[in-house]
């Protein structure tokens, strides 16, 4: 839960742990065979079948606003797309500070952004490891809190996810597993391009040393396939400092995240900066809530 909510262990509200345990007890855990990219492809297929046009590789430069109404978007290529409704799936902060004219940024919205506290980003390592090393793991998703948290770790938490334990299609041979090892990190510690690669290699070595005490043989019996620093994540996702959202605490969690409507007519928000928060399931649910809101506003009946 600490890793999922992007909080340190001592910051986690107790109700979040209860929420997770109740969900597991009632419905169990689900995993998309072939990775979550398969889920994205399936959603895209259903959308196209319903008549949607999906344009990829088309960065939005600006949201067109006229008389406090959202009218469309301008792409980086200068192509203009007009629409009756605009749903921004980037963060509320990015929407109001990068995509629309700042004169629409009211004092209330400014204050809301001033008090936002983003969660840390992560350092990710993708490994290929011998199965024998992981034979002691009882779950494919494990959170380790080493007794002596090294000073290079922000929270003392190391998460190990082994998707190939539940989806054998992700490995090409039967003697190894794919691992994703991650730990929270602040982007500020990775600023500057000089020596970033050597710094990353040093960080990986220390991280594997910490894991060696828990999974003996992991250092020598694994191969680093790729890694991502917080700045790499920022470059890939466009999220400032590579963060995956706001800290999910009482001050800015759940209902305090804000809804789908904005002060600009026909402009809506979805994603982790709105209710209920970050995570694949919750961000997707925010999109569902936004779609239902628009359907109701148009006087249509909700699908069953």
Low-pLDDT stretches: 1-10
Strand element count: 10
- How many helical elements? 8
Considering DSSP H and I runs of 4 or more, what fraction of the residues is helical?
Answer: 25-40%
Major beta sheet, specifics?
5 strands, antiparallel
Strand order of the largest sheet: 6-7-8-5-9
Which radius of gyration do the C-alpha atoms yield? 21 Å
CATH class of the largest domain: Alpha Beta
Mean pLDDT: 79
In the CATH hierarchy, what is the architecture of the largest domain at level 2?
3-Layer(bba) Sandwich
Strand content: 15-25%
**Helix-strand sequence:** HHHEEEEHHEEEEHEHEH
Into how many domains do the coordinates divide? 2
Distance between the termini: 32 Å
What's a concise summary of this model?
The protein has 304 residues and is α+β, with helices and mostly antiparallel strands. It has eight helices and ten strands.
Fold topology:
Elements: H1 2-5, H2 14-27, H3 36-49, E1 60-66, E2 69-75, E3 80-82, E4 86-88, H4 92-99, H5 107-114, E5 121-130, E6 141-144, E7 158-161, E8 176-185, H6 196-212, E9 222-228, H7 230-237, E10 267-269, H8 280-297
Parallel strand pairs: 4-10
Antiparallel strand pairs: 1-2, 2-3, 5-8, 5-9, 6-7, 7-8
What would you say this structure looks like, in words?
The chain has 304 residues and is of the alpha+beta class. It has 2 domains: 36-116 and 244-297, FAD/NAD(P)-binding domain, CATH 3.50.50; 120-237. The protein is 30% helix and 19% strand. It is built from 8 helices and 10 strands. It has helices spanning 2-5, 14-27, 36-49, 92-99, 107-114, 196-212, 230-237, 280-297; strands at 60-66, 69-75, 80-82, 86-88, 121-130, 141-144, 158-161, 176-185, 222-228, 267-269.
């Amino acid at each position: 839960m600490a890793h999922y909510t992007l909080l340190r262990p001592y910051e986690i509200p107790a109700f979040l742990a209860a929420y997770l345990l109740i969900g597991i007890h009632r419905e169990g855990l689900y995993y998309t065979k072939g990775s979550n990219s398969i889920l994205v492809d399936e959603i895209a297929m259903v959308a196209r079948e319903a008549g949607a046009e999906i344009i990829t590789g088309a960065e939005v430069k600006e949201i067109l606003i006229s008389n406090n109404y959202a009218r469309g978007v301008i792409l980086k290529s200068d192509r203009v797309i007009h629409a009756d409704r605009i749903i921004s799936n980037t963060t509320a902060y990015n929407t109001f500070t990068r995509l629309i004219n700042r004169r629409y940024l009211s004092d209330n919205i400014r204050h809301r952004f001033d008090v936002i506290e983003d969660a840390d980003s992560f350092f990710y390592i993708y490994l290929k490891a011998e199965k024998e090393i992981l034979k002691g793991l009882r779950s494919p998703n494990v959170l380790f809190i080493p007794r002596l948290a090294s000073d290079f770790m922000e929270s003392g938490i190391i998460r190990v996810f082994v998707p190939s334990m539940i989806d054998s299609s992700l490995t090409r041979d039967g003697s190894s597993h794919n691992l994703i090892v991650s730990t929270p990190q602040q982007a500020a510690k990775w600023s500057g391009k000089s020596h970033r690669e050597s710094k990353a290699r040093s960080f990986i070595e220390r991280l594997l040393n910490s894991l060696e005490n828990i999974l003996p043989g992991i250092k020598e019996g694994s191969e680093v396939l790729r890694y991502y620093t917080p700045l790499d994540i920022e470059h890939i996702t466009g999220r400032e400092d590579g963060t995956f959202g706001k800290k999910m605490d009482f001050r800015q969690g759940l209902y305090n995240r804000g809804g789908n409507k904005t002060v600009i007519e026909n402009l809506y928000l979805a994603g982790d900066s709105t209710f209920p928060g970050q995570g694949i399931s919750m961000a997707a649910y925010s999109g569902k809530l936004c779609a239902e809101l628009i359907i109701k506003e148009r006087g249509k009946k909700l699908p069953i």
